[in-house]
From TrEMBL:
Residues 35-50 have a biased composition (Basic and acidic residues). InterPro entries: ThiF/MoeB/HesA, ThiF_NAD_FAD-bd, Ubiquitin-activating_enz. This is Molybdopterin biosynthesis. It comes from Thermobacillus xylanilyticus. Coiled coil: none annotated. Residues 54-291 form the THIF-type NAD/FAD binding fold domain. Residues 25-50 are annotated as: Disordered.
Length: 426
């Protein structure tokens, strides 16, 4: 049996990884699903050190000292810490956005390093969750701001809570389902949604503002399957287009957060770098017939009155209920399955956390190659499949399988063990 990481009672002290992970856990509790960790004081005003640190963007007239003060007091949610999300997060951290919340469900792999600029080979070797690895890098880039990381899947159950209290949501996701969900939530809460997407050498971006523009559902349609056609899984992606799209989103974020709302680009940009092509259309206004943008109220200057947020979320809940249809995705009992963009990975979600230690024991006994860190275990089986089981969540990524059904079958085999109490799939 080979091991990527040796066994120890405290996973953070395992060989070779202690130093790398020390920067991530920073002496505080481990970060798992939904739990968060912060540094610095949020929402502080600019002092003399800040004036020096941010001097080049303060000298840029449209921002100035007042814009910088607003940035330091601002808070954003970045959904996804992959290629787009990591680039967006870096722009926001370097600009001095006071509070950055970042959420991602995935872990770092060697194939990410070609374009996901916050990660390195050590992150991939240790199979670190992207949200945790990104947060550690962001803290090294800027220790004067607050970073919250969430190692979690974004679902209708947690999306509104993740967006609570932020002034802006930046789209760094890789799939239409999450984008449409976040657009719905943003329009219900009155928060601008900075959409961005890249595939191949092409990308798109638009700043969607409740009460002023159409929502994402009106712009790309509600058909997730069609919207996901031509994902990075089939067409690949080159890093320059990711940076271009992230730059388009980050520029609009700076305008909004510094209070320069009149400067916002009111267009949908569709660009290709190879072959070179640039197209731009004026964004349509809210559609009267749309339940998402038709009744959305514009974002408030400062914060969102609670009653308005609640009314918006109530409308969203009614809409979800009305559109609830049998899931086209294969399921087995309480296991939900979703095929992830970009590689042969299926995400399985159970309604209860999994006993990691017992699963690890079983996988070791089977001769699997195990990688363990404070957030997850990754096991490589003899037949080339990989299981990644997240601590504190009922979530497993299965790689090396051809479809969701095979993934469910693999997990069911893994969990249905005789004399393994509590490790069963109901
Ligand atoms: Zn709409």
């Amino acid at each position: 049996m080979r091991e990527e990481a040796c066994m120890a009672d405290d996973p953070a002290k395992e060989c070779g990884m202690a130093e790398h992970i020390a920067g991530l856990t920073n002496g505080s509790e481990q970060t798992a699903a939904g739990r968060q960790k912060e540094t610095a004081e949020p929402g502080r005003s600019a002092d003399r050190t800040d004036m020096e640190r941010y001097s080049r963007q303060i000298r840029f007239a449209p921002i100035g000292p007042e814009g910088q003060r607003r940035l330091l007091e601002a808070s954003v949610l970045i959904v996804g810490a992959g290629a787009l999300g990591a680039s967006l997060a870096q722009h926001m951290a370097r600009a001095g956005v006071g509070r950055i919340r970042i959420v991602d469900r995935d872990f770092v792999e060697p194939s990410n390093l070609q374009r996901q600029t916050l990660f390195d080979e050590e992150d991939a070797r240790l199979a670190l969750p992207k949200a945790a690895a990104a947060a550690a890098k962001l803290r090294r880039i800027n220790s004067g701001i607050a970073i919250e990381e969430h190692v979690a899947d974004v679902t209708s159950a947690n999306a509104a809570a993740l967006a609570e209290g932020v002034q802006l949501v930046l789209d760094g996701t890789d799939n239409a389902a999450t984008r449409l969900l976040m657009s719905d939530v943003c329009f219900a809460l009155g928060i601008p949604f900075l959409y961005g997407g890249a595939v191949g050498a092409s990308g798109m971006s638009a700043a969607l503002v409740p009460g002023e523009t159409a929502c994402l559902r009106c712009l790309i349609g509600g058909d997730q399957e069609a919207a996901d056609a031509g994902t990075c899984e089939t067409e690949g992606v080159i890093s320059p287009i990711v940076e271009l799209v992230a730059a388009l989103q980050a520029a609009e974020a700076l305008k909004w957060l510094t209070g320069r709302r009149e400067s916002l680009r009111r267009t949908w940009i569709s660009a290709s770098l190879w072959p070179s092509e640039w197209r731009e259309w004026r964004l349509p206004g809210p559609s009267r017939d749309c339940a998402v943008c038709g009744r959305a109220k514009p974002p408030a200057e400062s914060g969102l009155p609670m009653e308005r947020a609640e009314a918006g979320l109530k409308r969203l809940a009614v809409r979800e209920e009305a559109s609830a249809a049998p899931s086209p995705r294969p399921t087995a009992g309480p296991i939900r399955a979703a095929v992830l963009c970009g590689r042969d990975t299926v995400q399985l979600t159970l309604d209860h956390p999994l006993p990691l230690e017992r699963i690890e024991e079983r996988l070791r006994a089977d001769g699997c190659i195990i990688t363990r860190n404070p957030w997850l275990i990754r096991a490589e089986t003899g037949d080339g499949r990989r299981f990644v089981v997240f601590r504190g969540e009922g979530r497993v990524l299965v790689q090396g399988v051809s479809d969701a059904e095979e993934a469910v079958r693999g997990l069911t085999e893994l969990l249905h063990q005789p004399n393994e109490e509590g490790v069963t799939v109901r």
